[in-house]
Amino acid sequence: MLFKNSLKFRINKLVVSIVLLISIVILMAIWFATSRHADTQLSRELEVGHSVFVNSLESRENLLVNAATVLTEDFGFKQAIATLDSATIDSMLNNHSERISADLMLVMSLDAKVIGKTDTLTTDSGSYLTPEIYDNVLRDGGLITFNLINGKLYQSLFLTVDAPNPIAIAMIGFEMDQKLVDRFSQLTTLDITLLFDQEKSAYLTTLSPADAKIVLQSNLPLLENAKKFSRLHLTTQAFRLENYPHFKGYVMLSHNTDLLFKEFYTLIKDVAVISVIAVFVALLLGVGFSKNVTKPLERLSILAKRISRGDYQNIIELNTSTTEIADLSVAFKQMQLNISEREKTISYNATHDMVTGLYNRTRLLELVQEGIENNGAFQVIAIQINGFRELNETFGYKVGDECLQYLAGEIKAKGGCTARIAGGEVIWLPNQTVTLENIVDIQSEMERSILVSQVKVRIKLVIGIVSVNDSNNKNSVFDKAEDVIRSLSIAASHARTKSNNIQYYLPEQEAAYIQRIEVLYELQHLLESDNKDELAMFYQPKLALSNNSVDKMEALIRWNSKKLGFVSPEMFIPIAESAGIIKSLTQWVIRRVIRDLHHWQLPEQQIAINLSAQDIVCGDLIEYIDDCLKEFDISINQLSFEITESDIMSDPQRAIAQLNLFVEKGFSLAIDDFGTGHSSLSYIKDFPVQTLKIDKAFILQLDQNEDDLTIVKCIISLATNFGLSVVAEGIENKASLEILRQLGCQYIQGYYISRPMPASEVTGWLAQYHDKKVQE
Q: What is the distance between the alpha carbons of residues 608 and 642, in angstroms, rounded to a whole number?
């Protein structure tokens, strides 16, 4: 009793009471501060998760738009749609789908009928294109939405294919599957539930079945967007995707609060134990511990606020000995760095091309529009790899991409801004005006053989140039960047018809561009149809000067279109080459010529057929010729082939290898239009040809122009030294004929001998010529 009333006891009792009271107060303070901070942290994590989820969707959306734009802007793709070439459309869709890892791709006509799709699609267009989506796509030119197809959710892009008006609707979709939801969960560090509709009939989630059942008990239609609610140990934020008004489902981000508070419960228990054991030192330890706990948490709270505002650069360094807080600090820093890197990647991908690292179409349009609005004069130059599609088909896309990367690097090194918008084309905005002489030098510099993936490839460049805001050029005023890019495309297309493959934009090219599209459309339709009566073969005799006999002729194609009228071969053949349909045209010519030979029954006649560069490298052409010869029982000696000099010189080594296959088969070969293709003598001696055909440009005024006469003498002398025969085309008078006879030319061809004639007149003409020769 005395002990209880002693001062020592009372002092001890007072000290203990004060220490216990302070310990309780500290515990309560820690509890309330921790709970408040945990709740704030939870809200911020949900907000950050919300932001990361939406940004990730936007990143996929940008990739979707870029992929769709590359496809729908592809000239070959538009051509395939315009001609309803479903095989080509399906092939391009399948190839493009594999390249971008799309789950579904299709093309629909404007009446919502499927005209092309990837191999994985079986349902009709109604499953993809609702009337509401159809109206929005046609009104706005495109739409990004979510589609529920066969119980699966797809992030889909609908985009019109314009040429220049809408001719079809393309759709590209990525499936929102469990793998994707799991990846989103890793990015947000939260569990995600994706409800496909308000009825909760279909959903994807990373929650356990039991937790998912808890979350799905909420009455979603009554919730406001981004509303937070709690069920047992789960705190969930549900929100609608505002950028996808057609999507009726919900996204729910859930956080397990048991995991969040677990460390805090342990911390409070430790503090209580320390308070009981350390009675006399608890006050100082409690103050120190409180400071060590609350101060770092407050700084982490500041960091979380900065992150929520989008500030990922400032990093707070915490000096703490508490392992849990240190781990939390490290986790915050890592999350801050990860979000920052993802945002940088998303921002980069939104403005750059993935293959070349150059600006993409979106950024290019911004730069051009800025230049227009600044009223400063500048140039926009398109540099295209000629035959880029054939390059990909022949050597593979890896070689094509590396050639494109080479071109991009060369142009980028010259300064200015560079971009890639589609295919094998690089757009260049030079820092200063580039003259035609500069362009020619650049073209010559980059048109060389390069070694890519152990393959030696020689590229040819087509260059289109548009001047903008040039005070000396009235055709350089533009209001919109899209108009500049369209004019650039027209100039580049027109450049393919030029001998130097370079063209400045001129307004009158618009009509020619439209005409080329019309010619291409009609030609494709004609070649795909069973009735090709619009096409006809004409034949022009070649006179042997040694005995004035006619035992050779050249086959010339003619096209008299019901819609377009007569179309010159000089127009439609280059179009067929650039569109990749020259193979079908050549096969028709070969079969028709062999059929005519069979009909004439003139075994002594040899017909020369013209081949393009694409025909030469066609792997199955010789086999096709052989089949036709066997079908009509025609000798190989009755066919010969002429190859334009410029086609051969575009890639001499490859041409020599391919031409050797024709010679080994027994065919006679001639170089057509000799003298116009800048042949190298070192190559001519290796060409497996038997004849040089002098271009008519040197023959038409042979009896009047001394320079032409000198050139013709040199060519005939060169051919003689190489053991080659010579054919001169373009003979229009007797004087030229006699000159060529004296110079030792073997064959002549031209209007002086005969104009080209239809197949029905050949035998009659030959009989008449023979009778006339006998009479003479």
A: 6
